[in-house]
Automatic annotation (TrEMBL), chains A, C, D:
The chain crosses the membrane at residues 6-28, 35-57, 109-128, 135-156, 178-200, 212-232, 244-264, 271-293, 299-318, 330-351, 363-388. Belongs to the ammonia transporter channel (TC 1.A.11.2) family. One of its GO terms (cellular component) is plasma membrane. PANTHER family: AMMONIUM TRANSPORTER MEP2. This is Ammonium transporter. Pfam families: Ammonium_transp (PF00909). Residues 7-415 form the Ammonium transporter AmtB-like domain. It is found in: Cell membrane; Membrane.
TrEMBL record, chains B, E, F:
The keyword DNA damage does not apply. Homotrimer. GO terms for biological process: regulation of nitrogen utilization. Belongs to the P(II) protein family. This is Nitrogen regulatory protein P-II. The modification O-UMP-tyrosine is found at Y51. Pfam families: P-II. One of its GO terms (molecular function) is ATP binding. One of its GO terms (cellular component) is cytosol. The lineage of its organism: Bacteria, Bacillati, Actinomycetota, Actinomycetes, Bifidobacteriales.
């Protein structure tokens, strides 16, 4: 047991937790003023529904349960976290640990729940300004259970897509996903695309201008995301060691390069260095380096960053061409960025990457794992989202959408600067 | 010269602007307003309290027009702004003594 | 000496520090635009006045001084922190430690000052939009000295209400307050109620609508509070160990459940899931689990959370019925939540709770300690608040209140989006 | 190797990172609504340009390279961080460490890059509302390379101005700069003044009122700065030990005292306790204690804070008298505060300060080092800023400045609360 | 038809609305404005600078009325909006050529 | 009595205010507006999309004046507000039936 590692993992969990509020403001600033509260609430549901589901069975399915077919763990073994906690004589709970653990096992529950929260929160960008909070809460519960927890199990807990899994063995190279290129970003982006195709576009999409209402909030969100990402990436070393330190540094280098990549691309295309572009470039860089932060050189990290910045900047225009309303570009930023990071790692990974070791197998396993993750996420999400569409329904009425979902679904207005509102006050019974 | 003022639903601004452009009106002034009338306000909820907000966001459009055009433009605006539900707003026409273009100092029809 | 514990306590202190800014925005978003700066300033005073008072004598009264009657420590022993610091040969300050300490003693000063700051900051929610900054600064100094520091001494430093104190010995069960159900929440809420009764209602309270001016700020504040609360609760294990990890997890589970509890209650009462409700539910859950985060099971934590969410949601309407203007519901959220947490712990505590061990004594001691804390806080706060009312006076003039306290007391306006202001510029002499 | 120290330094690096977003909002709230995005973008460039430059050669010039004339390190030795990283057998990067290191060496790269980021970000306050983002990006690259990295080398890596350097040896006392009084604050403020003299005033400066557009953002920024400063100061102990704990405590005490010092000064001068004043006082206190947080007593820290609060409050009016448009008072706050902290340390430092040991030499060395830092910074910055003025040019057109630099340079507007904008939507080609 | 425009103190909006409702006026349009006049502005302070802000927040109320009602309504508004301190504002009445209800196209008295 | 309404460029507000003060007008009402006209809007860019914003921020100034002063004041405003570029705005004058000062109930010239 190493208290330094414990301290680092506790704070890393807290940092990753803060990423979901970061996403809430990153997205919240980008929607129109009439929909910002709904946007913040979708992220809130990602926090609180996941918080409950994970405690009950999510942890067990992902990490604690006995492996079932390389796909998921049984929900019983770690139900209500029974496998990791015990009570001391004085009534105080503590962790059940083995000699092998380098920090208390219970901290893994903390660290991993924050990954589940942020992943499902990312999806909300695609469905902005139009979905009912009630349907979304149910979606979160189902998606964490049937998509996220199994995906984490498959990639990070010795399952099918893990370095020791069937795919890696078949191809002969250990699939690498340091902090969540597949589990988090490809997964969320695929789910976002599928959900958007089911629920449809916002009224006026592609015709009327739909502009961000509060760009400083977008920046605030991006800054909080970068800050939290230190826990995400450097925390994924699972120790306060040199690899954690390196992941911190490579994350910063790649993100810096990606932001510049996005900004210069935009400058060429539109003549401006925009703030939304800077915020988006940051996120693109963070996404791209996520699977690779521990295994690529500083130079490779910056090259990956620049490529991700340019590619995601261009990818965000696609939705207008293809006609799907991925409102805040979950596919363009997280899908493209996550896929690029996962695959470019096949070129740049120290020792085994194509450019480093001359062997194509790392690249192959990265590609295959990424594609399988897309398929799994698309199928599961499709079933869940479609079932909800046919039962509760996803969308508020068109009139409510136009007048503003905040008023309709939340019963609130985000801002009142004039303080001019006259109203009749009634107590709630 | 006349000044046509219209209080309309916010979502109708684009339609009114397009309809006016279609009849050759290329200048208007737009501002925010809040209306109180037959239309019922929303209920907002904050912790233990419920509010019925009776001031409802509206858009004010002002159009300067020659005397001859005024009534046609009123019709154009009314048609474009109509949703048929309570709260669609009002249009009124006021006489003016003069209109001047700031840039050039031109007055009258030339100023519009 | 364990550097891992030291690292964790340093960061926990920093996280708890951030809670006061969290409170500032949580409250600041809820007031009207004309009073937001005053609201932020009240929390600022909580930081800076406490920062000075604690350094001079607060630390000594609470933790360093010799116990006087089980109520407080003498202010002299640890005056200006003399008891915990020493100078190395090279002129560098460091901590005075014994073999028993598991992290440098001086870090306790840091960790505990942040608790004092946030506790007094909580009170500001009750007195929003109407009190003079100058009177409030003096209140903070007096309240930290005569209320908070003794209360911390009584509960957490072996005093009257501590697990080893007279009350616990008399009842035969060790009172448990992990991270501040009594010291922080019951204490602040009682003080808030007493102060409000002395200073009176805002003009228009219960008649005119008084609506939040910036709900995203409320959410931002709530998110920062949750984030900071990881230091508050998990830091209260005073080590980077399994109990810290468990407190992190139980805090998240309870908070998630409480948010859902509040939201569904609200949906039934008003038809909406509101953002203010979500933010409030989070805080209610955090408050409720605070005294118990280390000693209740994950399921119990979630049950406590749901109950707290429902109860605080209902309690917030009471002020209209009872006619006191606890403006932002310090009593409804922190009072009710803190009391429920402290008492429900008597049912759910592992080994000794009524449901776990079948013994009523844990419940009894929790109740008695909570009630004594209420009495102490009410008396001391009453004296301080009344004395200030009769001398400096608490409130700005009615005209200033109506026109906006920011302009009157701070001489500033919070926002200028139009940038239209024309004004005559004068240098300050 | 000590994992507790590693954990603390990882989180300290993350906290210091967050200071630059803190500065962005601190400054962003103070400008007019039409320039807030440009302001946020200048800080963003400080992050991302520094992120790239530091990885390539900044680290080497400051810390890794062989000393050249006591002024800088060669850029080759640590180019692309080659000196601190190595690849494990499994392709994972880790740190190159010696037995002497108490935490992985690579974490120093992380910790130090955040200092470089924040230092250059501080300058942006002086040049608000009028400079081109493109010119600023280039400035950042040049300034980090030729000013910041050498300055860090000189003061903190055994160079000319370090405790072991020529100046200290000549005077016979070891110059002390704990966390950056000279390297960060004096350096940035000098650069700010020189740059402002070259680029000139905003239109209307000193005549029209130029008011903050969002004071809550100013407070948010100040709070984030204080929070991040725990990493800055306590992290500068380079270990999770008693000195780190003491630096945390003295930082809080000094900052609290400085805020009160500023507020009461303002109250006397203008009759109000303002929120901008509170935020500014906090920053002034943090700046002032930065060089001295480990070597002055709690009482001395508070005295230094009060003096800094009063002095900076008065200093901010100077720009109107002297007629230079240091828009957001980088000179008044960071220059005056940093200089005072660096010099007052000569009075108050334990053992060697004039008031403590009766010896003038500590004071002398502090003064000389501060003055040399000013000279170095002024010359280098002057050359860079002047060269940019003559080539790319610094400023946007007067019309763009008046209409708002956000629209001109960023092509965006920060806020759209009314959502009334009608516009014609076009895809970007 | 007449258009009555009143510039009043923001805190008087509720009173004016109530007073108008009491005499049977159930529709008004409200917007934000800033006034400059005899009333002295506030002093605001930002770091080294002090500003005397001379634009003071006001509320603009517009009421459409029949010719016959106009002067009564002016009296009602003036009485309700009065605080007796400088800055209480102005009320003016302008003649209109026509008023139309957007929803129905009705004009004249029926449109109010 | 006349009501002079001017729609002007935001940066000209101070100049107009000063010019009016110079000729003895010490009261005006100011509000925000947006204009659509000959002046081309800005292009804004958000991720993959470019917007040409055609509503441009303007300031509305209203001045109550005696019949005799109206045309002089229009000239004063036009001169002060002119930048000579497209988008400088319009000034119009409308007749009023009455003007009342809320504070005192005075009407006519005494109310201004
Ligand atoms: N008498 C009035 N004077 C000025 N504005 C009015 C008047 N009556 C209505 N309005 C404006 O017209 C809007 C629509 O009026 P309302 O009575 O709600 O619906 P409708 O015109 O469809 O009957 C109101 O919100 C208000 O802005
Ligand atoms: N000549 C004017 N034209 C237009 N509006 C005016 C005029 N004079 C005053 N106002 C408006 O009336 C408001 C009150 O005027 P002021 O002179 O301050 O007080 P009072 O009307 O009580 O004498 C001003 O804030 C402004 O909005
Ligand atoms: N017909 C009109 N009715 C009302 N307002 C108008 C009209 N035409 C122009 N405006 C206002 O005048 C402003 C300036 O008009 P514009 O055509 O852009 O320039 P200019 O007046 O210099 O020719 C517009 O932004 C709008 O606010």
């Amino acid at each position: 047991m190493d208290s330094g590692n414990a301290a680092w993992m506790l704070i890393s969990a807290s940092l990753v937790f803060l990423m979901t509020p970061g996403v809430a403001f990153f997205y919240g600033g980008m929607v129109r003023a009439k929909a910002v509260l709904n946007m913040l609430m979708l992220s809130t549901a990602a926090l609180v529904v996941t918080g409950v589901v994970w405690t009950f069975w999510g942890w067990s399915i992902a990490y604690a349960g006995n492996d079932i077919g390389g796909i998921f763990g049984d929900p019983g073994t770690g139900f209500l976290l029974h496998d990791v906690i015990q009570v001391n004589d004085d009534g105080v709970y503590t962790s059940i640990d083995t000699n092998a653990t380098t920090y208390p096992h219970i901290i893994d529950v903390a660290f991993q729940v924050t990954f589940a929260m942020i992943t499902v929160a990312l999806i909300t960008g695609a469905i902005a300004e139009r979905v009912k909070f009630s349907t979304w809460m149910l979606f979160v519960a189902l998606w964490i259970t049937f998509d996220y927890a199994p995906m984490a199990h498959m990639v990070w807990n010795g399952g099918l897509l893990s370095p020791d899994g069937a795919i890696s063995q078949w191809i002969g190279a250990a699939a690498h996903d340091f902090a969540g290129g597949t589990v988090v970003h490809i997964n969320a982006a695929t789910a976002a695309l599928v959900t958007v195709l089911i629920i449809g576009k916002r009224k006026g999409f592609g015709k009327e201008p739909i502009k961000p209402h509060n760009v400083p909030f977008v920046m605030l969100g991006a800054f909080l995301l970068w800050f939290g990402w230190f826990g995400f990436n450097a925390g994924s070393a699972f120790a306060a060691n040199g690899t954690a330190g390196y992941a911190w540094v490579s994350t910063t280098a790649a993100t810096s390069a990606a932001t510049l990549g996005w900004l210069f691309t935009e400058r060429i295309r539109t003549g401006h260095f925009t703030a939304i572009g800077a915020a988006s470039g940051m996120v693109a860089g963070l996404v791209c380096i996520t699977p690779a932060a521990d295994v690529v050189s500083p130079l490779a990290a910056m090259i990956m960053g620049v490529i991700a910045g340019i590619a995601t900047c261009c990818a965000c225009s696609l939705k207008f061409k293809l006609g799907y309303d991925d409102s805040l570009d979950v596919v363009g930023v997280h899908g493209v960025g996550g896929f690029l990071g996962t695959v470019m790692l096949g070129f740049f990974m120290a020792n085994t990457g194509l450019f480093e070791g001359g062997d194509w197998r790392q690249l192959a396993v990265q590609l295959v794992v990424a594609l399988l993750a897309i398929v799994y996420s698309a199928v599961i999400t499709g079933i869940i989202a479609f079932a909800l569409e046919k039962t509760m329904g996803w969308r508020v009425s068109e009139r409510d959408e136009v007048m503003g979902i905040d008023m309709a679904d939340q019963g609130e207005r985000a801002y009142d600067f004039a303080g001019m509102s006259t109203a009749i006050l009634k107590e709630v019974k | 010269m006349k000044l046509i003022t219209a209080i309309i639903q916010p979502i109708k601004l684009d339609d009114v602007k397009a309809a006016l452009a279609a009849v050759g009106v290329h200048g208007i002034t737009v501002s925010e307003a809040n209306g109180y009338g037959r239309q019922h306000g929303h209920t907002e909820v904050y912790r233990g309290a419920e509010y019925t907000v009776d001031l409802i966001p509206k858009i004010r459009i002002e159009v300067l027009a020659d005397d001859a055009d005024a009534s046609t433009l009123v019709d154009v605006i009314v048609k474009a702004a109509q949703t048929g539900t309570i709260g669609d707003g009002k249009v009124w026409v006021a006489p003016l003594d003069s209109v001047t273009r700031v840039r050039t100092g031109e007055t009258g029809s030339a100023a519009i």
